[in-house]
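Posted in: Structural Biology > Protein-Ligand Complexes

Title: Requesting predicted complex, FE2/S2 (inorganic) cluster in pocket

I'd be grateful if someone could produce the 3D structure tokens for the following input. Sequence and ligand are given below.
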Amino acid sequence: MSDFSIIGKPTAMVDAAGKTTGAGKYTDDLSLPGMLVGKILHSPYPHARIQRIDTSRAEQLDGVVAVVIGKDAPTPYGILPVGHDEHALVTDKVRYVGDNVACVAAVDEATADKALELIDVEYEVLPAYFDPEDSMKAQSDFIHDNKPQNIEKDYHHVFGDTEKALAEAACVAEARFIANEVTHAAMEPHSTLAAFEIDSHTGKPGRLTVWSSTQVPYYLQHKLSLVLEMPMAQIRVIKPLVGGGFGGKSEVIPLEIIAAVAARKAQAPVKITYTREEVFWAHRGRPRTIIDLKTGADKDGHITAVKARVVQDGGGYCSYGVVTILYSGALLGALYDIPNIQYDGYRVLTNKPVCGAMRGHGTVNVRFAFESQLDELALKLKIDPAEIRRRNLLKPPCVTINGLRVQSYGLPECIDKVVERSGWRERKGKLPKGCGLGIACSHYVSGAANSIIRSDMPHSTVNIKIDRDGGVVVYTGASDIGQGSDTMVAQIASEVLGCSLGRVKVIAADTDLTPIDIGSYSSRVTFMNGNATLRAAQEVKKLLIAAAAKKMNCAAEDLVFRDDRVGKKHVAAGDSPAQDGRGRPSPHELSTDGQASVSGRVEGQILRGSLQQKRKDEGPKDAMTFEEAVVAAIDFHGALTGTGSYAPPQEARGGKHKGAGVGPSPAYSYSAQVAEVSVDEDTGEVTVHKVWAAHDCGRALNPVSVEGQIIGSVWMGMGQALTEEMVWKDGMLMNPGLLEYRSPSSVESPEVEPIIVESVDPEGPFGAKECSEGSLAATIPAISNAIYDAVGVRLHESPFTPERVLAALRAKKAEKKIDLTEGVDPTAPTRFREHGGSLWFRGKGPARHPLDPARREAPAGGDD
Amino acid sequence: MKKELIELNVNGRTHELAIEPSKLLLDALRQDLQLTGSKRGCDDSSCGACTVLVDGIPMLSCTMLAASCEGQEITTVEGVSEHGSLAAIQKAYGDWGGAQCGYCTPGFMMTVKHLLAVNANPTEEEVRSALSSNLCRCTGYSQMYQAIKAAIEAEQKAVPST
Ligand code: FES
Ligand code: FES
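-- Reply #1 --
Done. Output follows.
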């Protein structure tokens, strides 16, 4: 039984009040004197060479301060060192509808918008590629000259002997699965404010400060330095509150660089905030993925081999693509014990907005395919789907065939829990007609063991400062994007130091103040930044212990720091902590002994002399307040500081094969889910009634947040399973809005029962692992398996829209497919409410659509 | 466009503003009054992040002209807390995980405030349907229901029924 005073207690986020009162500031809430508004001109063509840009008319417009184009910042960049293929603004070609052509900085939004219309661009339209399988066959007009066949990267991994194992398998299943493209759709549209200050010594523009909605302030600082050709030390990146990321803010998004370039040219602060439509174009979401999967098992249901060919539709630039395609293969391992794996992965370029990292990066679509196929195998072998999963468990500690080290492994317990809670044994197969249960599992990394920029530096460093006031300030580079990392950091620091949470102030994600942390992605923050915080707190605590031991005349080992008090081990702990409104001990309250706390603070700050006098009179003590211990330590050392850092251990960094760097993690989270659905056989509509989701997070540092992350992941997975899909028409996004891109509302959302499983990882901070992404991947196959259970059709393409479900149902009964578009104008949108957003309404859009009724002829001499 | 002088009553205070007649209420609040609590999340009245109360009714401030609100009482999220302390619903949203990134939260605060004003004890069904005017991308809504329940209980404790 663990005994913590802060850890494991449901804790409101440290910044919750700012969020519920509206006082908390997000980037777009900030403004500076003399600030200009930036607006970006986007390409209406999916693939075109820029012949000429004339910005003179725009520049002459009253209120326009600067117009920037590609040549104002021609250095290429990209989030991966191998993928520096983007420019702040395009220099030669546009590669998707929405690509960034020019930017206007003006006194207000209306002026900037008007100026965009006055920029003349002459395009030479090139053949464009929209389907990855076509794109791979390209012979000319490659999207990037150095990527023949438009293949960004391909990997071919063979572990064991898959062919032999498949030939010998008692049972083999084989199918093609397609997962369509989805996007993060975080509620906060991206926003960046950039301002230069004049250097006192040179009298010229000097340091740059950028406030931005980013998950990765350090990477942003790094790329700004590259593109603006400024030393990193001259650039300060500050992350205000961020309104959700899910991966969509985990790399440098064009506006972040463009705002800085524009601010430099305009010699004034510039803020750019995307419209929702621009957010869709900026994208970086989960690519459409085509998965050809073959799995073999012996007669008892033990998986003997997996063979996967995966093609990802990456869009116009590299982004995180190389990592995504590697994750898709690497995370075939580390969930189950699979002795033979063959993986062929292709990341393909197309003329569409760029795909990148999205919650469950790389693993989600392949997991959908795999878990669906495992259900098929179970069916063929007449083994219960929960049982077949149990038969393929790993036996940790172990290293998988593809080099992933697994230590803590709560999957068996996760499966047991969801089976029990959902009434699986009693209810499976016995539900009324049209209703069904499905089970699936998933896992995810707790941070990548190898960072994308190769170096030996720690992945996280945290500083802690304690001054005479007894206030603990934690300086962390961790980027809270709503997942609650600031709260996690405060909890760990206060648990280690034995002080109340109210004493801890977190200063986060400001590159001038906080040590390097590589950001919030791949669910790395709790594990890595948490460990760094733990170490920093232990470091500073050593000083407190030494001073207190001296004052209390006892050995350091005898001291206990807890609830703002320092006591001796054999002396019973003080009074019980305060209760909060929820009837649980509140970690927020300062010391319950209000008197001592106040006098301690006063003494510490002002009346030190008399305090020392008092101490002399008192002789050795049995207990001290936290403040007294702090003051005692400061008397020896001055202000107390401690630094801690974390780098993943060598053993966790993976094998030696090409691409082995992606997939390894110091620890993996595990998830098992049961979904209950009903299917309307007349309309094909699927309703998810309930999802039981068990997640092994190592240890739940803050159970409210862990449950929130599990529910949020499951919910987002359900969105991808049922309604969310980016719909394209020749490279133009047909649903660039939240009405048409259907993220579930409260009435469409099922009840999710989160079940926390704690396997206590040997290397995690207090045993914690990730909890924010792993659950998502299990939801899609759990739903698809439940649909099979309900109506006997196996869906191979997500989302499982009424059209697709109905088509599958009719195919099963050998009935003719209903063609909703029969006899309809072929150029019209295929679905209700689809359109290409503002481009469509303004009659622009791909030239391939001369027949589009909304399109008017482009004015001669160029298209703006 | 030429500016006009209007009077806006926001959170119980009257402000005189010189704005273009075409200015949206959301922009007037955020840009002219620096009340940045109300958020913009979409281009097409689809997200609810900008919800404010106009004469007690939840409205999308991104879809209203500021000038059309003259003489009406506007309440924004900044007007929800009471005497410098969190209102029960604000406290409960924090305690129960109703807000993760918090970007949708101001809109939900207004929607829930209105819901509880017209229906002090809503069923879960009623809560779900009331909340469907606002989108949240983080929480999956579940913890909001718990928070709303807790807030109702807290209110009932604070004001014992007679
Ligand atoms: S900003 Fe989205 S509805 Fe008003
Ligand atoms: S809390 Fe992030 S959108 Fe609702």
